[in-house]
Amino acid sequence: MAKKVSTKKATEAKVEPTPILRPDVDLAIEKRLVALYTLQSVDSEIDKIQIIRGELPQAVQDLEDEIAGLNTRIDNFNSDIKETDAANKARNAEITDHQEQIKKYQKQQDNVRNNREYESLAKEIEFQNLEIQLCERKNKEGAAKIKELKEHISAAKQLLDNRTKDLDAKRDELTSIIAETEKDEKRLREKSKEQEQFIDERYLTAYKRIRGAARNGLAVVTIDRDSCGGCFSNIPPQRQMEIKMHKKVIVCENCGRILVDDDIAAKAKANLEK
Fold it and tell me: SS3 of 124, please?
């Protein structure tokens, strides 16, 4: 009896496992799906680096824009001061001319022949005095404007100094973080470009469009607990079977993300480890 069992075991030991053939699999599609999921994995790692950097790049950009705006504002204030000062000087010249006219008319009054000529000259003198008063009033307004503009410049320069210090600090912080992550990011970006070469243009365009629209940057996801790994909507069994067949690129009917199975994810992981 023991001999028969031994013979049976020997027979079983000689039987080679039959390989599982997948004639229904489209290898070109499978390769494309692996490349897409690999690309997604690489881009997600780049996203993590961006998250580590936080909002510093945008903060630096905002400070640079604010500083540029402050410099422009100060330049505009200085330009207004020059224009106002030039206008005041021009009015001072006008005042001198009006004063000369008054002296001339007063001298002519000494030689008038009748009251009519005298009154006419008196009106001219009165007009010149009014012009002088108008110029003086405008000059006072101009001087007040210049004073106000200088106060604005002083405040803007103080703010500019503070913002410049903030910018220097933010830049130093960003430079430090970039130095820590630059090597990894460069390697990942090269890997990303490498994977893009294995993806048709239309699928790559769709991937970038979906990724750009997704809040978490996920354009290619696996099925998790019978649900889309992106929006968590239920994936019907028949749909899951189609995804596992690797015969075509299938997207989630709810969010539009590209769906892959665990087999594709495993191959993509192996692809990254090469």
Answer: helix
